[in-house]
Amino acid sequence: MGKLIRLELFNFKSYKGHHTLLFGDAYFTSIIGPNGSGKSNSMDAISFVLGIKSSHLRSTNLRDLVYRGRVLRTSKLDADGNVIDQEPNGQDHAEDGVDGEQSQDPSGLNDPKTAWVMAVYEDDAGEEQQWRRSITSQGVSEYRINNRIVTAQQYNEALEAENILIRARNFLVFQGDVEAIASQSPKDLTRLIEQISGSLEYKAEYERLKAEAEEAAEQQTVQLNRRRAINSEIKQYQEQKREAENYARKAEERDQAIITHILWKLFHFQRMIDDSSAEILKYQDELKEYRRGVEKYEKNVEDAKKEHAGVGREVAKAEKNITKKEKDIEEAANDLVPIDEKVDITMKKVERFASRIAEIGKERDSQSANAKRLEKDLKVVEKAQSQWEAEWQKTMAKQGVQLSEADQQEYNKLKEEVNKRSSAEQLNLDNLRRRMKTEAEAYNSLKSKFESTEWQLKALESDTRSLTERKSSIKDTVKTTSKDIERKKKELNALTSERLRVSQMRTELEEKLQVVLKKLLEADDGKKQTEREIRTKELISTLKRIFPGVKGRVSDLCKPKQKKYADAVSTVLGRHFDAIVVDNEKTAKECIQHLRDQRAGQATFIPLETIQVKAFNSNLKGMHRGMRPAIETVDYDDSVARAISYACGNAIVCDDLATAKYLCYEKHVDAKAVTLDGTVIHKGGLMTGGRGPQQNSKRWEDSEVENLFKLKDKLMADLGNLPKGHRRGTEEETLQGEMVGLEQRLAYAQEELKALERNLQSKHTELDFVKRQLEELRPKYMEKQEELAELEQTITTSQETVSSVEDEVYRKFCKRLGYSNIREYEVQQGSLHEEAAQKKLEFTTQKSRIENQLSFEKQRLQATLDRIASLQTQHQRDQDMIEELKEEQERIRNQLDEYNAELEILRERLEQQKESYTQSAENLTQHRRELQRRSRDVEATLKNVNALETEVQRNSSSRYALLRRCKLEDIDLPLTEGSNPLDQLPIDELVQAADPDAMDVDEDANGGTDGAFTIQDYGIEVDFDSLGETLKEESDEKLEEELLDKVRSLNSDLDKMAPNTRAMERLESVENKLRSTEKDFDDSRKHARKTKEDFEEVMRQRSELFNKAFTHISEQIQPIYRDLTKSSNYPLGGQAYLDIEDSDEPYLDGIKYHAMPPLKRFRDMEHLSGGEKTMAALALLFAIHSYQPSPFFVLDEVDAALDNTNVARIANYIHDHAAPGMQFIVISLKTGLFQNSEALVGIYRDQTENSSKSLTLDLRKYN
């Protein structure tokens, strides 16, 4: 095999311009260099030139692979070979030569637009081949081989010729591939081997052919089943053909028997019609005479009915008016109760307001008297003051003494001398007197304030005592009112409890009465006294009397064995509940004709002779203990057993709905299931339930009807004996009104009590304040009094000192003038002024005290007057309300008197109208009796005529029914030559063109029996010649039974046969279908064989390729892993093997890779360490590469997760296996790996040219 000798790059990624990476003749070359220098870009260049897509080369499109000017970080190696990163010019470093780089030329105008990589390969012959891949300026790839442009496919084929598989990528191991291979799933490993082996190319064709083979096999099976079904169908139609031919013979024989039976019946019907018509004409003549006398009495009865109905309406109207008037009276009485209570409450309030006004009036009078007394005292003081001032003026005029001018001058001179000698003492004495005057005024003010406070304290204490007494009285009122309310509540609760008890008893009695009335409504129809029910029973009796074959109604002929079955049996019987049981079809038709003639309504008849009774399914008996046949739940006479069995049918009675659901839905019982409460589950699965009261279920309770009536009377009597509710309601309303009044009174008293408490609290607050004020004034007052006494003593001492000086100076002057001392003279002149000043001060103090008291009393008086005015306003308002309420009372009482008078009048009228109603009822009864007596003869004749007409009509109807049957069933009945054909017989018309609903309309006075009774034969005459004489003479039922038995026997045989009339047509169609199906089956079988062979061929080719690769890799992986993991300590190395999950088609399931390092137990791949995983993955890669190996193997930093020991093992393995045909190119940063290589290619960064560059060193020279 050849080898890669060099790699040339031009403007590829970080390589600017043209560069050459020389590998020479070395088979183990290592590419080294610092981070970011462009090592991985060289790996990308090898991948690029060998056809790898740009998305696998760390780029999004081809333009990203063209060189752009960038500044890359630089790295250096230290002495140990470790990388030292540097960041020149402050640029951020990048991890490789492309990512994270920054452009020097932001505009990118100078960057190259094209790039190329060329690999120079030397083949086995020693010839060089140049493989070149370029990126054009348009951003697309261009491929050249030896400088010759080729297509991408030709390029790939040339590479594959040298065993370089682009799809398998068996020559490249990128960064991270080792970890991916170590962690891949079994399915991924299978796909990898498929890529290596080439079996993946067959996958699409394999899946397509597999789907086609499966579809062809399925189609073959469908055609085979279809052919089998058609063969079975042919056999079935052949058998049906034989049955159809036999059926046709039997049908012809049956038709002849039917014609004979019909001719026999028609012959005897015609004979009976002729005999009865003659008798009818005879009785009709007699009937006309009787009816003329009855018409008069019928008119009298109608008049009496109208009169009786009119009187009844008047009575009902009068009762309604009385009820309405009683309701008005009750409402008026109820309206009066609260008004009476309001009057009582308001009058009590008025009395309370009057009492309160009187009490406050006494306070007002007392306060007014005090104010007047104080005003009087003030006037007395003012008058005394004015009298004293007049007297003082006179005294001053009388006692005035005049000195001579010389004495006055001497007195003044001596006075100056005294002042000189005692000036200091006089100055002090003047100060003391001024102070004395000031202190006296302050003392008088305190005294006045102290006395006023004492008086205010006494007044407040008096008010407090009065309010306390009032509060005690109000509390007593509250207690009394509360007790009255509690007593009234107890009385009201007792009345309410009694009323509720009576109401509950009334409700219970009414509910019981409703139940009894409901039971009476559900009781037997014969117990209801209505005209329709009486007519029904009379009709049954009449039918029994006229037609001996009438047995009675089904409801009268059977009875539930237990009461619990009543509802269920009623539901089971359903529409047959009121059906009438007769002995044969003839009697039933006669009864139907009678009902038509008598206009007596409709009825269902069950003929015992001809009804088809199906035997009860015996398999249902004992199926469930909660289920029993309906026929076993009723008692009946054996003579009507067929009718009861027919009515009950195959129905079953279940104890509950769960049992019915279990039998119908789980056991799939083919029967109508009815529960005890009447719920029905029909045969089809529908469920019916929730019905209202059923009257039918109670028709058998005849013995209880009388007891129900007695119970009804007793309940109504108990209801009548209960106390009247409205009287107790009035008492309750009265008590409630009294309670409302007491509660209002209590509320007023409580509000007043709260007001008193607030007032009392305010008084106490004022009292405390006055007491505190008095306590504060008392020490000040006493202190001021003591200060005045001390000041007077000081003034006396000082005055004595001045007096001694004056006595010495004025001794001669006083002696000459005749005074004992000078003070006597001065007193005579100044004592009057001092006395006057003292007197004025007393008058001022007394007036101030009286004025303060008078102001306080006036304020109290004004407050009292305001309270009286407020109470008088409320008093007047309540009096006005009392007047209004009394007027309303008077109005309601007058209205009550009017209502009572009107009620008496209405009751008198009602009595009169009831008497008239009774008389009209008696009159009506008398007229009815007379009419009934006159109508008996008419009824007797009518019965005879109706019986004959019924006979004629019945026979005519039977004849028409037979002819109609012949027409509808296309029976070939023989007719005479002059007869109309059966086609002219009307289908939808009845005999005599009678209205089928005419029986529900009362016939007119003339009756439908007057005139000739005609029979419509539609011009059809039957030819009876074919009927034998024996059949014409005999008409008994035994002969008819024989004829019917023969028809039934033939019909039974025909019913059992049930042929397919279209069997011939279907047989021919199916045979044609079989021929077509045979052809389709042969085609599908051939197609299935062909698709299976094609699929097996592709599966064989795919399996061979895959198994070949798997076998080789599986055999190689153990020695490779052993070589990679062995050492001097572990010469045997580890173990590794591949485990295939599906040996038949291994490519459909996964392949598990197991590796067991030396001296370690077996474990899954994910549980190995990182280095162990890497060694296992490399072993697998080397094993895979050994299958169809490419001439060179490029590894990009596969030793990243390995320690030095494992790196050395990898290096030794590569070194040992590097040889011709196995060239290793390894990119690594670990010394342990690249130091063992034969040549080194160093990649570095040239910052000057801003490009990656390379150097090559051959290490073999140094070994």
UniProtKB/TrEMBL annotation:
Disordered: region residues: 79-112
Residue intervals passing through the bilayer: none
Residue stretches making up the SMC hinge domain: 548-664
A GO cellular component annotation in the UniProt record: nucleus
InterPro entries, A to Z: P-loop_NTPase, RecF/RecN/SMC_N, SMC, Smc1_ABC, SMC_hinge, SMC_hinge_sf
An example Gene Ontology biological process: sister chromatid cohesion
Keywords carried by this UniProt record: Cell cycle, Cell division, Chromosome, Coiled coil, Mitosis, Nucleus
Subcellular location field: Chromosome; Nucleus
Location, primary (coarse class): nucleus
A Gene Ontology molecular function term of the record: DNA binding
One Pfam family linked to the record: SMC_N
Coiled coil location: 199-391, 415-512, 732-808, 868-948, 1060-1087
CDD domains in the record: ABC_SMC1_euk
PANTHER family: STRUCTURAL MAINTENANCE OF CHROMOSOMES PROTEIN, STRUCTURAL MAINTENANCE OF CHROMOSOMES SMC FAMILY MEMBER
Family in the record: Belongs to the SMC family. SMC1 subfamily.
Protein name, per record: Structural maintenance of chromosomes protein
UniProt organism field: Aspergillus bertholletiae
